[in-house]
Amino acid sequence: MLLLTKSIPLVGLLATASLAAVTGLRSRQTEPSSFNLYAYGGEAIAGFPVFYADGIAYTGDSTALTGVDEVTDVNLTASTDGVWTATPVSDVSWTSKTFYISNSTGEIGFTDAGNSSSNIITKSFSFYGNFALLRANGKMSASWNAKETDTDNVWTLSWGDADDDGSLIPLMLRNKAPVQPPAGA
Ligand SMILES: *[C@@H]1O[C@H](CO)[C@@H](O)[C@H](O)[C@H]1NC(C)=O
Ligand SMILES: *[C@@H]1O[C@H](CO)[C@@H](O)[C@H](O)[C@H]1NC(C)=O
Ligand SMILES: *[C@@H]1O[C@H](CO)[C@@H](O)[C@H](O)[C@H]1NC(C)=O
Predict the structure, then answer these.
(1) What range does the record give for the signal peptide (predicted)?
(2) How far is the CA of 122 from the centre of ligand 3 (A)?
(3) Is any ligand 2 atom within 6 A of the Cβ of residue 101?
(4) Is 179 inside any structural domain?
(5) What is the pLDDT along the chain (185 residues), one digit of tens a residue?
(6) CA 6, CA 26: separation in Å to the nearest integer?
(7) Is the CB of 137 under 6 A from ligand 3?
């Protein structure tokens, strides 16, 4: 489900570019092979990096999060079928994990490579320009949200329709860092 709030940047891009230009962009556009993800949403989430803690994807101030065993920033690479592989930046117990969305709960995290559970989506992630998307059934969707945690300035990522739940902040995930890092990043 592509949210109205999320479709604006995409529609905006399409509206301001001629069809020829868009077609050119499409055919020229190659997925970034190596990238970091940054979350943008609401007033508070102004380009915080997406980071890993105990298997779950978070954004915000990673140094503020307590009560977890392993926290690390991640570098990501994309395969041709849109599998995103995370490499930890800090010294943790693992060397490689696969980015996923749970299609039963909308939870977003990092699982073992090759996890073939039918409850998680681990491929068809993509970019439109520098906006992260999921390509499913011929559609591009970007239903990223942030959900508050018990820690100020730290949110978990989730996927789904933010209208169902007032506690979710619609997000854009981009592979582009903010010009100025947000306070606490
Ligand atoms: C993560 O990416 C940054 C920027 O490209 C790079 O400088 C750093 O060496 C990478 N770290 C690891 C552990 O791959
Ligand atoms: C595979 O993913 C499922 C669904 O999220 C999870 O319950 C399970 O623990 C994962 N398995 C491994 C080995 O990470
Ligand atoms: C979850 O998504 C995967 C990949 O698109 C699909 O194969 C699977 O059937 C889905 N599972 C559920 C419970 O919708």
Answers:
(1) 1-24
(2) 10
(3) no
(4) no
(5) 333 344 334 443 333 333 334 444 454 456 788 999 999 998 899 999 999 999 999 999 999 999 999 999 999 999 999 999 999 999 999 999 999 999 999 999 999 998 999 999 999 999 999 999 999 888 999 999 999 999 999 999 999 987 666 789 999 999 999 998 887 77
(6) 20
(7) no
117 lines ligand 3 (CB under 6 A): no
Task: Examine residue 182 and state whether it is found in any structural domain, yes or no.
Answer: no
C-alpha distances in angstroms, 145 versus 33, 101, 108, 158, 172? 24, 12, 10, 5, 8
Which pTM value belongs to this model?
0.85
Position in ligand 3 atom list of the atom nearest CA 104: 13
Ligand 3 neighbour 115 (Cβ under 6 A): no
Domain range enclosing 20: 4-174
Residue 95 CA: which ligand is closest?
A: 1
Total tally of structural domains belonging to the chain: 1
The response to whether residue 121 sits with its C-beta less than 6 Å from ligand 3 reads: yes
Torsion, CA 95, CA 98, CA 101, CA 105, rounded to 10: -50
